[in-house]
Amino acid sequence: MQITLINAFKNAIVNPLQTLQNYGQSVWLDYIRRSLITSGELQRLMDEDGLRGVTSNPAIFEKAIAGSTDYNDALIALEQQQDMDAMSLYEQLAISDIQDTADVLRPVYEQTKKRDGYVSLEVSPYLARDTQGTIAEARRLWQVVGRENVMIKVPATPAGIPAIEQLISEGINVNVTLLFSQETYELVANAYISGLEAFAAQGGDVSQVASVASFFISRIDTAIDAIATARIKTATSASEEASLRTVIGKVAIANAKLTYQRYQEIYQSDQWQALADKGAQTQRLLWASTSTKNPLYRDVIYVEELIGADTVNTIPPATFEAFRDRGQPRASLKEHLEEAHDIMETLSRVNISMQDVTKQLLTEGVQLFIEAFDKLLSAVEKKREAVLGTNLDRQSYYLPEDLAKSVQASLKDWLVNGKVRRLWAQDASLWTGTDENRWLGWLGITEDQLAHIDHLKKLAEEVKSAGFKHALLLGMGGSSLCPEVMKLTFGKILGYPELQVLDSTDPDQIKAVENKVDLTNTLFIVSSKSGGTLEPNIFKQYFFDRVQKVLGAEEASKRFIAITDPGSKLQQVAESDGFRNIFFGLPSIGGRYSALSHFGLVPAAITGVDVAKFLDYTEEMVHSCAATVPASDNPGVVLGTILGVLANQGRDKVTFITSPGISDLGAWLEQLLAESTGKDGKGLIPIDQEPLGKPLVYGSDRLFVYVRLESAPDPSQDAAVDALEQAGQPIVRILIRDPYQLGQEFFRWEIATAVAGSIIGINAFNQPDVEASKIATRQLTSEYEQTGAFPAETPILAENGIQLFTDQKNAAALLEATGDRSLVGYLRAHLNRIQVSDYFALLAYVEMNDPHQAHLQAIRQAVRDAKQVATCLGFGPRFLHSTGQAYKGGPNTGVFLQITCDSTVDLPVPGQKYSFGVVKAAQARGDFQVLAERSRRALRVHLGSDVQAGLTTLQTAIKQVLL
């Protein structure tokens, strides 16, 4: 409590949002939903952050109503009174929210003498080109809402501007939206002044009328940047290229500053002074669309650079929280005005028409609102038809009574202490108080992606038109697992390339993947967040060399794209080699949380997945997990609480059961849970693809999660899960109606993992032990480059073509445990080290194919049934970027059997002295070295070159051990 009060006191003193008032700027929130009001969150934002107004639009209402349960009771009550169409239902729900918000804001309205304290409601976007229709709709909404501190939003279309003048002349407050150009702003300002003059001439009190001119910011940079970037590729001179680069990321702010300068001139005129003498208020500029869409730009740039007197900034929640966290207020609007003029002149000089761009943005803006309104009415209609008979999140759970009580106690703690809000506010103290606030960019990624979806749509069409037969993704861990899930879930989509994923340095695996694609007709996707990860870089070197030899350097470049974070080594390589495209990730999103960023969606778009539809489904879950949703109703928080509470009580083996149609989801979940929570001797151990057994083979350390695809369930899984529940095992059930809802699961589990990490007491966003294996691998490859060999090692056993290796400590323990110096004897001694609540992990550095998997699955099932412990299977080196973190940094409850082999072929790495076979061997030895350093119980089995025969021998020996 004392810490909370201290933090609150500090916040009150230095809160950058509050500080904006010192510069004459008012902060409004570009967001509305019922729980924002009913939870007290809106009042808190007013009290603690100086919030002075709220704006809404059809897209916001669509996500609020379709993506939450906030409106269920009201909708049911309305339907019980009288059946209404979707539009009538929507208006009832929305107007109630607007009225309640206006009432909460009323004290601000009075304290500021009607300058602030407003909430905005939009006329139907269908009327954007209908002057009289807009006027009639605005009049009706003004009357129905019945609040002085409401503004009716009207777009600044050619049809909207005369409507604005008429509405002002009738004393109706107007929020003018979709302003992009200085010229249109002047028309709007003149319409406002003329409207006030007409109102005054009729005897109206002009001091009672308020208006803002909502000037959109980030969309301008997005449009101009795209044009300039494309033009740079065709620039005919260095000076032209330099000029084009000058305008990138600069136009939106320059345009706003010059518009503000014009605002000041207009409201110093004699014409205005006559109205001001009667008490009229200026029509303030309101900066809208102020979230940053480009990861190269500072995330609060469109707040920091637009601060000045008599302005408003309406800020979306993620940017609102970010500015509170790290905003640096200053009087910026009057700075660098000459530079702003120069930017606009440069724009004209390079023949980029601001008039054309802003005209197109207005057209697109109206269309976006129309599409959002369509979705809104569709969502309300679905809710009306179902009368909310189904739960959006489709999540349920069964827990034994003692565990259920613990989970409920934790949920109450999250509610009472406002922890959901703190999570969304990026409060690092929710975890370990280190750098966690730097890694939460994924909270707002779906909104950003939807706001700029066109480039993904264009990419899909470009690839389709190019006629690529295959796409090959080269990546590891977070860069490869989501694309793999999407590939195996959606399959080959007609007209688009078939995706293959390479995430192994095993030469046999690389050759097998290469044989599946046509090198002359494949688009290669090199994906690495850091840009310095070993595997994607050497994959790129290999395949670029292969394609270059077939097609030449110029054609090879056209077949490669990169996905990476800004400023990375991979970006430099891609630019140097002239890649077809470079797509950037957000540096504030870690790899395993990047599924909904470009790392997941660029490959999805390339292969024909409707990413807009995918994200639309996802956004509904985002709103269901929002800061204002109570913990017990928040699906991500509930799931995370179950995971964290049960882990702390010894049930840390999270066992996934997934329907066949979405079976690869478990591989993505493995990485998310293991890398996020497996550290500091704590964490969750994910169990994926373990064959289902009868209840008696499972211990008391499990939590089962059944993710069921309702359109294609497996009856045997249904029966097995029912039996587990009847036996008293804790079960979470998640029902997915459509594969396009997988994005909902990505986000639900990301929230859940963050929550579980908080409850377990670790930093859910770092991976300290992954780097240890990388260091060991680098040391081994460096030694190989210098000497041409690895350090010598001596097996503790060689028998029938199989060798056993381990470190001194493990060797001593095994020798002490057995007098039988045979393969069976050593394996028996090793498996006898498995204790209750341990887990057994097969770490297989062999080609990942069906025959090998069948042998290894049989081995893990035999161990599970005999020892009644959880079992894991990972193929190396891919698991190093996934479960490897938990194996080394998590609880020391694993017993590991590493399996290595001699590759039947080896492949050179162009430009390096080592080969892929050398890299794989170094990774395996580095992996084992770190396991041993962490005092893990580990044994390595080397099979030689005949992997199939070696696995057969190993399986037979283990079967004999377990008899």
Protein architecture, described:
With 963 residues, the chain is an alpha/beta fold. The strands form four sheets. An eight-stranded parallel beta barrel has the order 1-2-3-4-5-6-7-8, surrounded by nine helices. Strand 10, helix 23 and strand 11 form a beta-alpha-beta unit. The longest helix has 33 residues. The radius of gyration is 31 Å and the shape is globular. It starts with a helix and ends with a helix. The N terminus is likely disordered.
Distance between the termini: 58 Å
Q: If you compute it from the alpha carbons, what radius of gyration comes out, rounded to the nearest whole angstrom? A: 31 Å
What's the quaternary structure here?
single chain
Give the overall form: globular
Strand order of the largest sheet: 1-2-3-4-5-6-7-8
Mean pLDDT: 92
Q: Describe the main β-sheet briefly.
A: 8 strands, parallel, barrel
Number of strands: 24
Q: Could you name the ranges where pLDDT drops below 50 across 5 or more consecutive residues?
A: 1-12, 387-393
Beta content comes to: 5-15%
Helix content range: 40-55%
Structural class: alpha/beta
Features of the shown structure:
963 residues, eight-stranded parallel β-barrel, globular, six-stranded mixed sheet, disordered N terminus, alpha/beta
In short:
This protein has 963 residues and is of the alpha/beta class. It is globular.
Would you spell out the secondary-structure blueprint of this structure?
Layout: H1 2-14, H2 16-19, E1 25-30, H3 34-38, H4 41-49, E2 51-55, H5 58-66, H6 72-81, H7 86-111, E3 118-122, H8 131-145, E4 150-155, H9 160-169, E5 174-179, H10 182-201, E6 211-216, H11 218-232, H12 238-247, H13 251-266, H14 270-276, E7 284-288, H15 301-304, E8 311-315, H16 317-326, H17 337-349, H18 354-386, E9 395-398, H19 401-416, H20 419-424, H21 445-451, H22 454-466, E10 470-474, H23 481-490, E11 498-502, H24 507-514, E12 522-527, H25 534-551, H26 553-557, E13 560-564, H27 569-577, E14 581-584, H28 598-606, H29 611-624, H30 635-648, E15 653-658, H31 665-677, E16 685-687, E17 702-709, H32 715-726, E18 731-736, H33 742-760, H34 770-787, E19 797-799, E20 802-805, H35 808-817, H36 823-831, E21 839-844, H37 850-867, E22 870-875, H38 884-889, E23 894-900, H39 916-933, E24 937-942, H40 947-962
Helix pairs in contact: 5-18, 7-18, 8-9, 9-10, 10-13, 11-12, 12-17, 13-17, 19-30, 21-29, 22-28, 23-28, 29-33, 30-33, 31-33, 34-39, 36-40, 37-40
